[in-house]
C-alpha cells in the first residue's frame, strides 16, 4: 500500500513484525526518505526558556507569555500559532501557580485531546498514520505500568478537568496514555520496525521529524529505525525493548551478536577471570548504573564524581576500558567534569570514550558525533586548535548524513570550523 506523503515507500504487513515500511526505489546514504510534522508536542520543563514553545527554535532572545510567564516564543507569530494549544495550559498555570506540575506525558495527552477537538481535517502526520492505528499494548502491561497509567489519568483530571470539558472516559484515557508511552505517538516509530543495525536515522528540524538513510536502501528492502540506545550488548538491548516495546528483537545484530565480544571486553590478565567473576561484575555494573541514575537527584556533584571513579576502579580490575559498562561510567564522569568546569578532566574521559564509541555504535551515530563535538570544543577551549578542528570535522561528517547538509546544526559546526582559519 503506497503511503500518502511518503513517495518511494510502501506500508506492508510483515508475518513476524506486523506493520512495516519498505522502499520501492533506491535511497542513497544521507538521502531524505520522508519528513513528518509532529501531531502534537510539548517542551520539557528543562527546555523552557531556551526554546520556542511553538517552533522549538533554540535562541536567547525569546519573550514570555504575558499571562502565565512560563511559555517563551520567538515572536508574535509563534505565540499566535501556539495559542490554540497553549491557552489550555496558560489558564491552568495561572490557576495553580507553583503547584502546577503535571508530567510531560500528562501535558501531551491533554494537548492531543484538544487537538482532536479543534481539528476537522487530517493533519500531515495523520496522512501517514491515523491516531487510532497506534499500538497501545494494553494486554501486555504489567501491574506496575497499569498503576502508572492510573496515576497519570488522576493527574490529568486534577490539573485539567476544570479547563477541558467532558474528558474522555477512563477506558479511552487508559488506551491513549498507553499509546503515548508505547510509541511516543511518533509516526516514524509506528510506521517503521526496529533494528539494532538500522538503515535510517531520525533527526528533528524544529517539530518536524526527518528520516534519512544511513545505509544504501534498495527497492524491496524494509526500512528500519532504532528505538533505543545501541551501545549495549544484545541481552541488555533485548531487555529494554521487551520492557518498553513488548517484543523480543530478532534482528541480524541480535541473532549474530557480532559486536557483543567487543562490547564486553575483559582485561588481558595473566590469570583470566572466571566466567562467574565476569557475570558478577556485569551485575555490579548494572546495579551501579541504576544507582547512579537515582543518585543524581540527591547526591552533590563531588559525591557523584567520587561514585564514578570508585566504580571505574572496581570494574577496571576485570573490564577493559573499551567495555560498554566502563564507557557508561566514563561518560557520566565526563558530564560531572563538564559541570564542574574541569576541562582537562572532561577531555581525558572524552579521549577514552570516542574511539570505542566509533566501534560500538553504527557508522552515522549521533552519539559519536556528539562526543566528537564535545571533544572538539574542549580542545579549542584548551588552545589545542588542530585537534579541535579535526574532531569538529569528524562530527560534521556524521551530522551531514544524519541531519542533512542544510540543517542549522550543521551550519553551526561549519561556522565553528571556519572561525579557526
UniProtKB/TrEMBL annotation:
InterPro entries cross-referenced by the UniProt entry: H3K4_H4K5_MeTrfase, SET_dom, SET_dom_sf, TPR-like_helical_dom_sf, Znf_MYND
Main location: cytoplasm
Domain SET: 7-228
Keywords: Chromatin regulator, Cytoplasm, Metal-binding, Methyltransferase, Nucleus, S-adenosyl-L-methionine, Transcription, Transcription regulation, Transferase, Zinc, Zinc-finger
Gene3D superfamilies: 1.10.220.160, 6.10.140.2220, SET domain, Tetratricopeptide repeat domain
GO molecular function list: histone H3K4 trimethyltransferase activity; zinc ion binding
Keyword Iron: no
Known EC number: 2.1.1.354
Localization, UniProt: Cytoplasm, Cytosol; Nucleus
First-tier enzyme category under EC: transferase
PROSITE patterns: SET, ZF_MYND_2
Reactions mediated catalytically: L-lysyl-[protein] + S-adenosyl-L-methionine = N(6)-methyl-L-lysyl-[protein] + S-adenosyl-L-homocysteine + H(+); L-lysyl(4)-[histone H3] + 3 S-adenosyl-L-methionine = N(6),N(6),N(6)-trimethyl-L-lysyl(4)-[histone H3] + 3 S-adenosyl-L-homocysteine + 3 H(+)
Gene Ontology BP annotations: heart contraction; methylation
GO CC annotation, single: nucleus
Ranges of residues in domain MYND-type: 52-90
Pfam families xref list: SET (PF00856), zf-MYND (PF01753)
SMART domains: SET
Function: Protein-lysine N-methyltransferase that methylates both histones and non-histone proteins, including p53/TP53 and RB1. Specifically trimethylates histone H3 'Lys-4' (H3K4me3) in vivo. The activity requires interaction with HSP90alpha. Shows even higher methyltransferase activity on p53/TP53. Monomethylates 'Lys-370' of p53/TP53, leading to decreased DNA-binding activity and subsequent transcriptional regulation activity of p53/TP53. Monomethylates RB1 at 'Lys-860'.
Listed name of the protein: [histone H3]-lysine(4) N-trimethyltransferase
The organism's taxonomic lineage, starting at the top: Eukaryota, Metazoa, Chordata, Craniata, Vertebrata
